[in-house]
Amino acid sequence: MLKLKKIHKVIAGVTIIDHLTAAFPRGVVSALVGPNGAGKTSLFNLITGEMHVDSGSIAYCRKELTKLPAHRIARQGVGRLFQDVRVFENLSVLENIMAACFSPAEDQPWFPFLHPIRLRQTNRLIRNKAEAILDRFGLRDKKDCPAGELSFGQQKILAIGRLLASDCSLLLFDEPTAGLHQDLIPEILAIIKQIIDQDKEKTIIVVEHNMSVVREVAQWVFFMNEGKLAFTGRTDHVLGCREVRELYLGLRGDEK
Question: Which residue among 43, 93, 148, 213 is the one 20 to 30 A from 114 at the CA level?
Answer without folding.
Answer: 93
